[in-house]
Design brief:
InterPro entries: AmpC-like, Beta-lactam-related, Beta-lactam/transpept-like. This protein is of the alpha+beta class. The protein has twelve helices and 13 strands. The longest helix has 15 residues.
């Protein structure tokens, strides 16, 4: 558009109007794209995957495979909204990072400064212990529910009920910082801190401070399970899979055996460790921020990527992300899974490359499928 507004007459004479300007070669050729398609091809009338490859802040591939909703035969597309499950943790961490950069909290602050209910554990429990999964808190799923129903998203429970259950024991499992233990309640408590400091709901904070500034208009914190989410992907698992029958039977959900798919619904609107619904298109905008610094400049990314050393050996955690090495390159990744979903996102920051795989099959192994794609890309010299 700019070139057409100001044409050099000499250049115009040298290159006649009929000459076509060469376009850059696509990052993937048709043979390579077809190979990826084969990895995710689904039988007719099946759930499936949304897959994206992002290079230098742009899609090199963004496709849906299979159906988002079997009832109405709705296909998966880059606009399909998936529950991210634990991939949501990086968004919770982003809220914490923004408040740190606002100088309203610090990683070294005692959690009891903001949440009096944890004062019984002393001032040694700090925000950094929640962020880096070294708090010593009990997980809510290890404690009984007062109404006797299981801790599964088939049954309604809120973030606050989960937190209350996790804080029932009077003693921590270990002294904060001495051991590493994955606990969703850590990130649930982080959302409570955000609410106390910001004086608004976590969903509102995320909408105003993260989703709107980045243009992520199809992203939300699902803190109300009755909400309508446009283009939502419904979860499914094969009715004939014995794992499905056994796992559901263990929590009192009886389904008819046979062929076809069982519909799996997330009823519990807990969030913090999970609860973000978003699309491939919005995740492209989220990924761009790592290079554009839209939210809070480069210091935001530096904080999100920050590693810390505690008294245990695990030191590759960042804020809702994990540092690893793959094909000789550093990467940040995280995976998630819940009743309705299987998710994976991996960023190679030095290559400005990200892969995302989202599935509405909780047994869809999004992480494994993504690594099959990465193996192909490595064999093609892309990584």
């Amino acid at each position: 558009m700019i070139a057409s507004a100001c044409v050099d007459p000499i250049s115009a004479q040298t290159h006649p109007p009929s000459a076509k300007q060469e376009h850059p070669r696509p990052w993937l050729d048709s043979v390579q794209e077809s190979a990826i398609d084969r990895l995710f091809s689904q039988p007719p009338n099946s759930p499936g995957y949304a897959v994206a490859l992002m290079k230098d802040g742009e899609f090199t591939l963004a496709k849906g495979y299979g159906l988002a909703n079997l009832d109405d035969n709705i296909p998966i597309t880059p606009e399909t909204s998936f529950h991210l499950a634990s991939v949501s943790k990086q968004f919770t961490a982003a809220a914490v990072a923004l408040l740190i950069l606002d100088h309203k909290i610090a990683l070294s602050d005692p959690v009891s400064n903001y949440l009096p209910e944890v004062a019984k554990y002393g001032n040694g429990l700090r925000i950094e212990h929640l962020v880096y999964m070294t708090s010593g808190l009990h997980e809510y799923t290890d404690e009984p529910r007062k109404n006797g129903t299981p801790w599964t998203t088939f049954y309604y429970f809120t973030r606050d009920e989960a937190i209350a259950a996790a804080l029932q024991p009077d003693q921590l499992q270990f002294t904060p910082g001495t051991q590493w233990a994955y606990r969703n309640v850590n990130y649930m408590l982080l959302t409570k801190i955000v609410e106390v400091v910001s004086h608004e709901s976590f969903a509102t904070f995320m909408h105003d401070r993260v989703f709107v500034p980045l243009g992520m208009s199809h992203s939300e914190i699902n803190d109300d399970s009755t909400e309508v989410i446009p283009h939502r992907a419904t979860g499914y698992a094969l009715r004939s899979d014995p794992r499905v029958l056994n796992e559901l039977a263990q929590v009192g959900v009886v389904i008819k055996p046979g062929d076809g798919w069982a519909r799996l619904v997330r009823v519990a609107p807990h969030f913090g460790g999970s609860g973000v619904f978003t699309t491939l298109n919005d995740l492209l905008l989220w990924d761009r921020n790592w290079y554009a610094g839209t939210l809070a400049g480069p210091q935001f990314n530096e904080l999100m990527n920050k590693r810390m050393k505690f008294e245990h050996d695990k030191d590759n955690d960042a804020l809702g992300l994990v540092w690893r090495s793959s094909y000789g390159h550093p990467l940040l990744d995280y995976s998630g899974g819940d009743t309705d979903t299987s998710t994976y996102m991996a960023r190679f920051p030095e290559q400005h490359f990200t892969i995302i795989c989202l599935s509405n099959m909780p047994l869809g192994d999004a992480e494994g499928k993504a690594h099959e794609v990465l193996d192909l890309l490595h064999s093609w010299g892309k990584l």
